[in-house]
Design a protein that fits this description.
Helix content: 25-40%
Mean pLDDT: 92
Low-confidence stretches: 223-232
CATH topology of the largest domain: Methyltransferase, Cobalt-precorrin-4 Transmethylase, Domain 2
Number of strands: 10
Number of domains: 2
Shape: elongated
């Protein structure tokens, strides 16, 4: 059986009791970075073998599939959050489903869900874009594909590209479009920046150094409000 186990975004208290039990009982834990995963396991007194998982290595995927077919219970984790959601795991889960193997996806920490819930923006229907392409043209095209849909747009960005992203978003949606940018969600230095795209870009641009991981939320632009959807 393959378990997809969400891990804390930053605060270790966010892990669930069920996740701890599964990590204690499986034969091995596959992860992005064994060093980071061992820190988590050691903190909770767990001594299960950790192995690196590479989503782009077909041989590694087949080795895990073989172990699952042999009846072993295995876990897949990402460095933080839920596997597959803008993190490795898609190829493994797809292969496991193709082979008719049991896949159990545990609920738990997810940066996109936590950010939408805390933003005050409509969350009944939103567009999650993950990490956008690095190319300016492709990034713009991805944003333009959501313009006018009337849904909250959510995406991830690195500290090195966050200002450029906000600038492009301002050109696509309009500089006065309301937005929220969350830095270091659930961690010690968690920070929420709210205002227009132009205002937030200005605040970040004025900083000597930009650090941390970012979740960006942009409000609907066509005037629709999905907070109270009509009953069918």
């Amino acid at each position: 059986m393959l378990y997809l186990v969400p891990t804390p975004l930053g605060n270790l208290e966010d892990i669930t009791q069920r996740s701890l039990r599964v990590l204690r009982e499986v034969r091995a834990v596959y992860c992005e970075d064994t060093r980071r995963t061992r820190v988590l396991l050691t903190h909770f007194g767990l001594h299960v073998p950790t192995l690196r998982y590479d989503d782009h290595n077909p041989r590694a995927v087949e080795q895990i599939i073989a172990r699952l077919k042999a009846g072993e219970d295995l876990a897949l984790v990402s460095d933080s959050g839920t596997p597959v959601i803008s993190d490795p795991g898609l190829r493994l889960v797809s292969r496991a489903r193709e082979e008719g193997l049991t896949v159990i996806s545990l609920p738990g920490p997810s940066a996109v869900a936590a950010a939408v819930a805390g933003s005050g923006f409509p969350g009944d229907s939103f567009m999650f874009l993950g990490f956008l392409p690095r190319s300016d043209a492709k990034r713009r095209k991805a944003l333009e594909s959501t313009a006018g849909l009337g849904r909250t747009v959510v995406l991830y960005e690195s500290p090195h590209r966050i200002v450029d992203l906000l600038g492009t978003a301002a050109e696509v949606f309009g500089p006065g479009t309301r937005s929220a940018v969350v830095r270091e969600l659930s961690k010690v230095y968690e920070e929420w920046l709210t205002g227009t795209l132009e205002e937030i870009a200005g605040k970040l641009r004025s900083r000597e150094k930009i650090l941390g991981e970012f979740v960006v939320l942009i409000t609907p632009t066509n005037g629709k409000n999905h907070s109270h959807p009509e009953r069918l």
